[in-house]
């Protein structure tokens, strides 16, 4: 089990992206820091009992010791500011009708060293985000069940290694009795099923609780069906995973038949595209790291994990005082997919925005919708859109600078292979935004060949669209918040290439990884508080995470091997 964040992610969703990706792993980590360490266990890897067709699987060491245990506790306490940061996630085992579980009395006597959870489809994976948020940030006295499976819930199961099969069976019998379950069998294996569709079984010393289809899938697998642990993609990625990982999340979009989706599925698609991916979670006192590995495939679209040195170069050309910096590869080839992934993330960040009378018109949902509007046009899939926009695009980058609202500058910068094409795109993009409800403003920006301002519904500043040349004579297409942002994008006083924050990110990432994403959380939090967005229902629950975080650094490791790695490191206060 030891072997086992976004391209243009808006700053306000960076923390949520990290939370969403870790949701599945944290469900199994719920038990890791709740009680005693060390147990003989049956040492069965749950992945050997999970169907190879699983679309999403998370596994964890739930009885860690030494540095793994202390790292999990330190990171959890820093993020949640709770003495027992994972205790409420024990509710993931609290099935319908069950009283509140007590780890020491109810679970520790039979729990083995390994645990896993799998889903048969990515389509409903957004529910896992709510599970994690409620489990980590809910009221300290909450005893609510977080169990996600059943006829009307997720399809899949929890698969738990056991140290005492008899005590595990007693626990399952008790939970089944509380749920009003009745006896049934499948292929000669006894299990219990409730009217709400929750099934309970002990299968080859593994405690299995989930939907009926999920439990039947485990029974089929242990009877000789294809197991996830032996499938080619999973096995290769598991061998490449970093040592010391507390947990990992494996996704296989092809198994689900879902190329996109919302929530966790959208984030995984943004990271890995249509490729299988394995994301390992490593924790220590000062940071939480995600190592996202995917199999290199020239015929299958990749996401953020696809290493592209042009993205690193594009980040280095951004203003040196940027508190948000993101470098991308070939925007013409990837922008459509990126916009789809960002749209999925927007459903997470905007799902709680209030539309009630008297609510502030400035909220996360409206901001994200407005910011995505021009990107959706630029990433259009029609033949005309690709001729007008994708045909001239090279690498791209995003930056934000300034420590207050009055000083804020932000822009998306896309290099151009065709000055005439990108110059013409200024008017073409503006016309489409006007047709979608925007209003045009005449602007003149020194050093540009074409420029126009667009006021978009939901965006409190005018978006300037411009095309010009930088100090090296390279043509760049810029979407900037007002003229000062465009000027900084084209002619920064100094760049990140040799700035101390970038050197610090290189040191944090290690292994020679060059950063393609850098974010300073204290500045982000200050700006969100300045406009009252920390009270927005869609992100207010995540503010404690932002308070606990210092920086976010990410980058890809390029190598000649089959596996590509994208590393994301979240710095924590007090580390």
Characterise this structure.
Mean pLDDT is 80; it is low at 1-41, 258-263 and 350-360. The protein is elongated. A hairpin with a 7-residue loop joins strand 12 and strand 13 (409-416). The chain has helices at 14-29, 66-80, 103-107, 127-137, 165-178, 212-222, 232-240, 253-256, 263-272, 309-316, 331-350, 364-378, 383-388, 419-435, 483-490, 500-509, 521-530, 543-548; strands spanning 56-61, 111-119, 156-162, 182-186, 189-193, 198-203, 206-211, 247-251, 277-284, 287-295, 322-330, 393-401, 409-416, 439-441, 448-455, 463-469, 475-481, 517-520, 549-557, 563-572. The protein is 34% helix and 24% strand. Helix 1 (14-29) crosses helix 4, helix 9 (263-272) packs antiparallel against helix 11 (331-350) and helix 11 runs antiparallel to helix 12 (364-378). It has a 20-stranded antiparallel beta sheet, sandwiched between helices. It is built from 18 helices and 20 strands. The two termini are 27 Å apart. The protein has 575 residues and is α+β, with helices and mostly antiparallel strands. The longest helix is centred in the middle third of the chain and has 20 residues, at 331-350.
Concise summary:
The protein is built from 18 helices and 20 strands.
Strand content: 15-25%
Regarding quaternary structure, what we see is single chain
Kindly report how far apart the N and C termini lie. Answer: 27 Å
Number of helical segments?
18
Roughly what percent helix?
25-40%
User: So what's the overall shape?
Assistant: elongated
How many β strands by DSSP? 20
Helix/strand-derived category reads alpha+beta
C-alpha Rg (nearest Å): 24 Å
The biggest sheet, with number of strands, parallel, antiparallel or mixed sense and barrel status, is:
20 strands, antiparallel
On the 0-100 scale, what is the average pLDDT? 80
Q: Which residues sit in consecutive blocks of at least 5 with pLDDT less than 50?
A: 1-41, 258-263, 350-360
